[in-house]
Amino acid sequence: MRIKRSVSLYSYQDEYYNHQLDLEGCLRETAKTGATGVELLAEQMIRRFPLPIEDEAFRAKWFGWLKQYGLEPSCYDAFLENRIFDNRTLTVKEQIKMMERDIRLASLLGFKNLRTLVSTPMDVIEGSLEYAERMGVIIGLEVHAPFSLNSTWADGYLELIHRTGSKFFGFIPDMGIFCKNIPDVVREKALRHGAKPECIRIVDECYAERVAKGFVKIQYDLNLGKANMEYRLANGMAEMMKAVKKAGGGPADLAYAGESFTYSWSDPQDLIDNIAYIHHTHAKCYNTHPDYVETAVALDEVVAAYKKAGYDGFLSTEYEGGEHLRDAFEADSIEQVRRHQEALRRAIEG
Amino acid sequence: MAGRQIFNPDGFCNVTEDGKTVGFSFAFKAQYYRGFTLSILRDIAVTVDDENFNREDIRLTVNGETFTLEECRTVIDPDYRWEFGDFATVTVLKEGGLSAGSHHIHAHQSIAPSYMPFTIEADCDADFII
């Protein structure tokens, strides 16, 4: 079976924000790109979440749209709001109930994959596995930069998979972990905000060095702030910041330097090694040029790895470049998604 | 250069109760990519022409219901989510309201999605006329 293409409606957030597209409009645009899958953030585009999903009339409308536009539900992106109150974290049991609610909501809308975030405690995943299996929904942990496969962080989750023998938990790689360089739109934003070309050069060279040497991988720690800071320091942040300051770097330069750590490079071989646990993928993109070349993600190498591994799940476009434009311009997510889908098509079929 | 719209350009006005001007209001969109329960809204801070206002004097109206920022901490009802792309109205209590004419507003949003190790801090600025 061939790799399938999907669009995460997250991609259309700028048009949705501006009320240029509603949920149905996003589905219509998705279908126009030739994608056959759709990924949904229910909390983004379904008002009064989660009530409408419980409502048969809403679901009839949803499935009617899917039929009309020839789309299949690929992945439901859940947000485990385990700090919904500011004075405590929900207990593990409360979190499992919330996860089971989301699994049920995903299932009601026809999704067989549910994305959960790295902040989800392992006990909560383990406690939800039986229900996930009953509902036929696979929980996928998003592997988003600065996290990576083939790391001590991922080992903990593999141990869970092996110990429980569950087929209902795996990984959802986000292609932001396969960035060969910092996206051009991030660099242009920094320059717009007054960054100095000399400082940009220092940061870009440090990034290139990390890619060449290999990133030091992040450790497992539910204290994500601490884990992230240790990861940054292990990857030379202090030295880089010092160099940027020495070159006269101001706030825009330091912001660019800090942002450089939100991208990373992993060897696409990681995908092949872990393919048994990968059921869905976020095909992250930042700026796909008119010649269908993505500014940062090594798309051809990554798709080649998926093909070699025999992956038959979805590659789901997740356009995220808009956030680097919207201080000054209107994003054109529709065109960006179109280009990225074409880039994916060529890589898959080529 | 025109970035995306945050404030409702038609939303700036003084607020009158029983014939007295008790404050002013404006409407803006949350600078986050999904709707959320008001319980994860940590703060809204407002400055108009260098005048700061007390947190206790700020009210947020969503779907026809008005809450203080303190009350927002426990609001989890689906009817009162701050929906993605929707304006919420902020009312600031200030006797006499704002003077007629041009003003500048700086409004700060602080939102705390559970999965993030830090809060989203958004600075929103606009010039407007009362």
Largest sheet of chain A: 8 strands, parallel
Strand percentage of chain A lies at 5-15%
Number of helices of chain B: 1
Structural class of chain A: alpha/beta
Strand order of the largest sheet of chain B: 1-2-7-5-6
Q: List the strand order in the largest sheet of chain A.
A: 6-5-4-3-2-1-8-7
Number of domains of chain B: 1
Can you tell me the CATH class of the largest domain in chain A? Answer: Alpha Beta
- Give the SSE order of chain B as H and E letters: EEEEEEHEEE
The number of distinct helices of chain A, counting runs of at least 4 residues, comes to: 15
CA radius of gyration of chain B is: 14 Å
Which oligomeric state applies?
Answer: heterodimer
The largest sheet of chain B, given as strand count, sense and whether it forms a barrel, is: 5 strands, antiparallel
The mean pLDDT of chain B is 96
Tally the beta strands of chain B. Answer: 9
- As for the number of domains of chain A, it is 2
Helix content bin of chain B: under 10%
Structural commentary:
The complex is a heterodimer of chains A (350) and B (130). With 350 residues, chain A is α/β, with parallel strands linked by helices. Chain A is built from 15 helices and 8 strands. In chain A, strands 6-5-4-3-2-1-8-7 form an 8-stranded parallel sheet. The longest helix of chain A is centred in the N-terminal third of the chain and has 17 residues, at 92-108. Chain B is mainly beta and 130 residues long. Chain B has one domain. Chain B has one helix at residues 69-72, and strands at residues 13-17, 20-29, 41-48, 51-52, 58-62, 65-68, 87-93, 102-111, 120-129. At the A-B interface, helix 1, helix 3 and helix 10 of A face loops of B.
Comma- or semicolon-separated keywords:
heterodimer, A: 350 residues, alpha/beta, TIM Barrel, 2 domains, eight-stranded parallel β-sheet, 47% helix, 12% strand, B: 130 residues, mainly beta, five-stranded antiparallel β-sheet, four-stranded antiparallel β-sheet, 1 helix, globular
